[in-house]
Specification:
heterodimer, A: mainly alpha, B: alpha+beta, Alpha-Beta Plaits, five-stranded antiparallel beta sheet, three-stranded antiparallel beta sheet, 8 helices, Small basic family protein (chain A), cell membrane (chain A), DUF1290 (chain A)
Chain lengths: ~110, ~300
């Protein structure tokens, strides 16, 4: 319950405060969100599997976001930013789908 | 299960990579942490609290990130929309200003003409000058005219019904298939050669120094854009105009182009056409009337005062 509340508070804070993001960081926000989604779904899946661990969740979240943004940044520098961000989205998307399917099986037993 | 394992062993590297991505959707670190935890005693209440707080803080971060990204994306599209609207408003406003200025100019020209006629009609010399002026003005196409003539419409191919409206009616050679400035120039020259006394394109009168040029995708007549279909009207003896127009080889050439590129190309006689005067010509030369002393700016040895300013 507390994590969901935290998510809601974060969304409300972001919408209300409307903090300005430095321009150089803006291209990496969408990919960071996808990476964050992957970490969150992984955490939920682990929770249902009964193996959730706070430390692992926090570390995986931060490293996921940073690494995804870093990969795209590196791609941008090498001139393959669009392709690399596609690769990141495909891999993370597959994982999100897999985790969502596992969560669904836990929730609905189907 | 051994059957599938056997199969996976013989699969290519790419396929096994995909298998791994598909199978390992949850971070293996969770399983390791769980295994390590099983060996240790249960965590204290404080440690669990701390873990919960950390998770909550991370989720706040996730929410913040999502909200920020949403804000950014929506601001981007809103900003583009706003800029577009502002630009369109700018164009509309400036076009209005131009129209006002043109109307003002026409009014002032009429005033000047009236004042000049009043001033000159007093003397015989002035009347002669006035008659000369009228002749010159007719030549310079600055006076409004009306009369019978020919109406020629030349336009780009109309979009056909089976064009995809989303992908746009853009065949590969669409740039070639458009009416170009030189086609319009050719048409105008054919009309002059056929005996036209006055010509207008989309209601814009052509003077002796009028240009028909292409700038990007638009055709400009004296720097004002005209759009397809181009309505070219010519005043003159209708019979002579019509016969001359039909019999000239350039008209045949234009007709062939029109057939090739599906252009709109029609012409018909019109009983009465009226045209406004062409934009005013710059005053470049002036000569003092009569034996009055030449003004200070006169070039010595010449009877004319030239003014190349503005």
């Amino acid at each position: 319950m507390i994590p969901i509340l935290g998510l809601a508070v974060g969304v409300v804070l972001g919408l209300l405060l409307d903090p300005s993001v430095p321009v150089w960081l803006q291209p990496y926000l969408p990919i960071a969100v996808v990476a964050a989604l992957d970490a969150v779904f992984g955490g939920i899946r682990a929770r249902f599997d009964g193996i959730f661990d706070a430390k692992v969740f926090v570390v995986s979240f931060v490293s996921n976001v940073v690494v995804a943004a870093l990969i795209v940044f590196l791609g941008d520098q090498l001139g393959v930013g669009a392709q690399l961000s596609t690769a990141v989205v495909v891999v993370l998307g597959i994982r999100i789908f897999g985790n969502a399917a596992a969560i669904r099986r836990h929730l609905f037993r189907a | 299960m051994s059957g599938t394992q056997q199969a996976s062993r013989t699969r290519s590297l790419g396929a096994s990579l995909l298998d791994q991505v598909l199978a390992e959707t949850v971070d293996p670190a969770y399983a390791q942490a769980a295994a390590a935890r099983a060996d240790r005693p249960a965590p204290t209440r404080g440690a669990r609290r701390r873990g919960q707080a950390l998770v909550a803080a991370t989720m706040v971060l996730a929410g913040l990130l999502a909200a920020l990204t949403y804000d950014q994306a929506s601001a981007g599209s809103e900003g583009r929309e706003q800029i577009r609207d502002a630009l369109i408003a700018d164009i509309d406003r400036e076009s209005g200003v131009t129209d006002d200025l043109v109307a003002g100019l026409a009014q002032l020209q009429t005033d000047v003409g009236t004042a000049r006629a009043q001033a000159l009609s007093a003397s015989t010399e002035g009347q002669q000058a006035l008659a000369e002026l009228a002749r010159q003005e007719a030549g310079a196409a600055t006076e409004p005219v009306s009369g019978p003539g020919l109406d020629v419409v030349l336009g780009n191919a109309l979009p056909s019904a089976d064009d995809d409206p989303v992908a746009g009616a853009a065949p590969a050679d669409s740039d070639v298939a458009l009416v170009l400035d030189r086609d319009l120039q050719l048409l105008v020259n054919v009309l002059w050669a056929s005996g036209a006394e006055a010509i207008s394109i989309d209601g814009q009168r052509l003077g002796p120094t009028t240009t028909i040029r292409q700038a990007g995708g638009a055709i400009l007549v004296d720097l004002r854009p005209v759009t397809s279909p181009y309505d070219v009207q010519a005043i003159g003896d209708p019979d002579a105009l019509n016969n001359g127009f039909v019999s000239r080889p350039d008209t045949l050439y234009l007709g062939q182009l029109a057939v090739t590129y599906d252009w709109v190309f029609t012409f018909n006689r019109v009983g009465s056409i009226s045209m406004a005067g062409a934009g005013s010509t710059e005053l470049r030369a002036a000569r003092p009337l009569g034996p009055a002393a030449p003004p200070a700016g006169t070039t010595p040895g010449e009877g004319t005062t030239t003014d190349d300013g503005d």
